[in-house]
Design goal:
Layout (H helix, E strand, L loop, with lengths): L2 H36 L3 H25 L5 H20 L4 H25 L8 H28 L4 H21 L18 H35 L3 H29 L1 H22 L4 H6 L1 H4 L2 H12 L3 H29 L2 H4 L2 H22 L5
Helix pairs in contact: 1-4, 1-5, 1-6, 1-7, 2-4, 2-13, 3-4, 3-6, 5-8, 7-8, 7-12, 7-13, 7-15, 8-9, 9-12, 9-15, 12-13
Length: 385
């Protein structure tokens, strides 16, 4: 591919990540509204998240397998089409069960889109892969920030949540047209002189699955449950609560914009280990302090920022056939997050919203432990530069 084609593709990836953030983050803002409109409990919201992440998990894996046979453009285009269909079903859903069907369809599409984005970047001929990957995921953080603030304002102003999904569907239709018009690189199995497959490879794969799974659980369930937590525990309405989540994703976006530079200088896994440890300390401290500590929870987003893109990118250094391995790790990570979503929903109904929110820092500290194991393992195998 030419330099111009690379830049056009990077532009598409940036836009796609921002649109995926819109899809992923609308749910967390409208949870209180959905509970009221469908007359369901927090437990039902946990089921909703389970359905969303089950679809994402399943189709991330299917997409990873599909990329062994089909092109990036085909899988990405199919993912966008599924999103559009899902949004239409959500808009017209007469009850909670049909809403779940639409959500399953749309998140199936997100799974296809995610596996393409996270595996096509190493095929783009540019230097500083960590910087590029984090900049791409910066767009997700930017999209999440705007989604939380704008959606919180619109819902508080009386806009029907169904209209939000209709608007998102229109935007995705434009994205589909853009996708069909540009050129993608060929799918190839990547290898590296530094990649080794030995006794530690399967163990390392499991460490990646758990570390990334627990991190993803903390990130996505902050998006899904933080507004509900603020409303139920501190009686803050959606508009004001969305300020805290907007700050979380604003500093999250800034961290991704700058974090790639740090990762390139100090090493991928080492940087992730330090960053996620700081995120855990801030998050837990904020919850313990109470309302005055909520800003600490928001600021912890800065240290969440580089974990996912940098860990995913490091897979390309440490495994043969990283496209397939990336799909496998992302599938397992989503499965873990899916279970954690159910747990939080159940705990909200049993021990209360306040205590159940401690599930998130628990996920963070587990991720810290397994990231440390990854670091030890790759050092032992002499895979770090």
């Amino acid at each position: 591919m030419t330099k111009k084609q690379n830049y056009i593709l990077i532009g598409l990836i940036f836009i796609t990540m921002a649109f995926m953030a819109v899809n992923d983050n609308v749910r967390g803002i409208i949870i209180p509204t959905l509970k009221k409109d469908f007359s369901v409990s927090d437990g039902s919201m946990g089921i909703m998240l389970f359905v969303a992440y089950f679809a994402y998990m399943t189709f991330t894996y299917i997409g990873g397998v599909g990329l062994q046979k089909y092109s990036y453009k085909f899988i990405l285009g199919l993912g966008i089409v599924l999103n559009i269909l899902g949004f239409g079903m959500i808009y017209f859903s007469p009850n909670f069960y049909m809403f779940l069907v639409g959500l399953f369809v749309s998140n199936s599409g997100v799974g296809f889109m995610a596996i393409v984005i996270n595996t096509v970047v190493p095929r783009i001929n540019v230097g500083f892969q960590a910087i590029l990957m984090n900049m791409i995921h910066f767009c997700f953080g930017l999209g999440a920030t705007l989604t939380h603030r704008v959606t919180g304002y619109l819902i508080s102003s009386g806009l029907p949540w169904r209209n939000l999904y209709m608007a998102i569907g229109v935007v995705y239709s434009v994205l589909l047209l853009y996708t069909l018009l540009i050129k993608f690189p060929e799918v190839k199995k990547l290898s590296s002189k530094k990649s080794k497959v030995g006794k530690g490879s399967r163990k390392l794969l499991i460490f990646y699955m758990i570390a990334l799974g627990m991190y993803v659980s903390a990130e996505v369930h902050t998006s899904n449950w933080f507004v509900n937590y603020l409303k139920e525990v501190y009686s803050i309405n959606e508009n004001n609560a969305s300020v805290y989540t907007s700050i979380f994703f604003a500093v999250f976006a800034v961290g991704r914009l700058l974090g790639g530079i740090v990762a390139e200088k100090f090493g991928y896994v080492r940087t992730v280990l330090v960053s996620i440890s700081l995120a855990f300390v801030l998050y837990l401290s904020g919850i313990i302090i109470g309302l005055k500590g909520m800003m600490m929870v928001s600021i912890s987003g800065l240290f969440f920022s580089i974990v996912f893109p940098t860990l995913v990118l490091s897979i390309n250094r440490f495994f043969m056939n990283p496209v397939y391995i990336t799909g496998l790790v992302m599938t397992a990570a989503t499965g873990i997050s899916m279970v954690i979503g159910l747990v939080i929903g159940f705990l909200n109904d049993t021990i209360g919203v306040y205590l159940s929110f401690y599930t998130i820092p628990v996920c963070l500290v587990i991720s810290v432990c397994f990231t440390a194991l990854i670091y030890r393992e790759v050092r032992a195998l002499e895979l770090l530069e």
